[in-house]
Amino acid sequence: MSITPPSGRELELLAPARSAAIGIEAVNHGADAVYIGGPAFGARAGAGNALADIESLVRHAHRFDARIFVTLNTILRDDELEEARRTAWALYEMGVDALIVQDMGLLELDLPPIQLHASTQTDIRTPEKARFLQDVGFSQIVLARELTLEQIRAIRAATDPTRCVIEFFIHGALCVAYSGQCYISHAHTGRSANRGDCSQACRLPYNVTDQAGRIVAHQQHVLSMKDNDQSANLAALVDAGVRSFKIEGRYKDMGYVKNITAHYRLLLDDILAACPDLARASSGRCSYTFTPDPQRNYNRGATDYFVNGRKDDIGAFDAPTWAGLPVGHVLVTARDSFELESAVQLANGDGLTYFDLQRNLVGFRANKVERPAQPGSAAQLARWRVWPADGMARLKDLRAGTELSRNTDMAWDRLLEKKSAERRIALSMTLRECTDGLALDVEDEDGHRAGAVLAQAFEAAKDAARAEAALREQLGKLGGTIFTAAHITIELPRPWFLPAAAINALRREAIEALEAARAAARQRLPRAAAVAPPAPYPDDSLSYLANVFNHKARDFYARHGVQVIEAAYESHEELGEASLMITKHCVRYSLSLCPKQTAGVTGVAGTIRAEPLVLVNGSERLTLRFDCKPCEMHVVGRIKKSVLRQTEGAPLQFYRTRPPSGAQATR
Known about the structure:
By secondary structure, this protein is an alpha/beta fold. It has four domains: 10-174 and 226-282 and 290-294, Alpha-Beta Barrel (TIM Barrel); 183-221 and 574-651, no CATH class; 325-417, Thrombin, subunit H, CATH 2.40.10.170; 421-521, no CATH class. 22% of the residues lie in helices and 26% in strands. An eight-stranded parallel beta barrel has the order 1-2-3-4-5-6-7-11, surrounded by five helices. Strand 8 (206-209) and strand 9 form a beta hairpin. The radius of gyration is 29 Å and the shape is globular.
């Protein structure tokens, strides 16, 4: 499709990193930016990193003009604000490019002049919310995953592309709830998703019952979504105004980040090649030792979610884990092994899966695989014998005809454990005579220049062609650097014989000077200034859904005109039934029970109503209520008494009632 870029030209590929080592490989595989958790206060509690490790990642990324964003995106207690402030300063001083923030209390602190990005946890679904966050000083905002192209365009139209970059998730696991609007984990376990510790109740199996107690669905993972994959929609997202393309996965392993980053790097490079008005957000080009394939990594199946409107098949209801890619079917079983027919190469250690007769996913490791020695055709040579690591007895319902998949491919994993990419910045090199001897001038693809001089006497070359070829060979030896020689020009009026050691020293000096020039030219991302007077918040009241968990956040919203401010759900003011999850996913729609689906169907229209349903998992019961006008579902429940006993201290209380008109906002 044709792309009409707004004034924001750069396309940024934003990759996740669980660790600095993974972040470095994300850069090597084509990321323009990497987001990573700091030592605390990141929305993935198990993906924190020491400051020294982040500093090493920053140094590597900046060599390619790639950027490092650190997540500081949990909601914070009052007693945590000072530590968060000190962390922000430490990150700024080591060169981190931006902080990803959820808690507005941070904006009331003495933060360094570091760029701020609005986390997905800020729940950006409307032009009004997006415009507000731009106007209070956020330079980049990640939109809700549930938005359509039309809604993204509306947000782009309401914001200024020269002030605020629109970011959008293009790949990875999908939270079924609007980000920041899920409290089931805290209500049931005391582990808050807004504080980085989600228990993932959405991946559990549930019985779905109607109001009469009849089972509508049995032991289905009805809140579990397939994984996001926007590979086919990148051009449309660019056209809608997205400029930062975000890959989910701060809990994912090295192989996932390498593969998925490379996959989207290639797709975005195709768009950039077709649209010269757009530009990359960092330097260098990548080459790979493998062919990227997003299906080879852990996934629950692919969906583009709501980008192109509501779809029937967005859920991973059968299993919340990855079944893998099909490999073949069982031919015969034996006491300790089985045989299957497969067109793919199997290996010892591969992970295989199948669904039993109850549609439960069964997985096992192949301890040993071999091809039985059978004369015959090539088709017969695709017969394999597999010895499961834990024997055959536990493999329920494995029989002839069972379809098998593979979710661990040892050959693929070993390929990605090795060095699998190189990233190089193109440069031009010119060798010429100068007053002191020979000069080497270098200029990289971004226009940075440097040079070095070799002052010594030279011998005349006996073989001019051979001498020049040797010079080109020595100058082009850039393997230990981040550069590659796109052009080498020899401007010598006479052929000289130059010792290899002398040319190598000249080249190294010029390259070191070029790296220094790149570093000196690098500018920090600017911190956006908030508009004055303070922009009014789109609403004058906030419920617990706004996640206000400290008094600085309360002060922020009061300063922006909010009159009624309730404390976050984690403060335990909401003790009765409450919406514990708000989601665009509709269980009634997925089960073909939506009234809109029956519109116009003779004899059915009007008989199906959006009455509540109930989710049951053991002793847990959650009520599904359907708000059909915005086409949203609320999962309703109450906080457990055991969770209340876990938390010491009185609940936070801000406003309980609306203050009198004109009254100053106070606690």
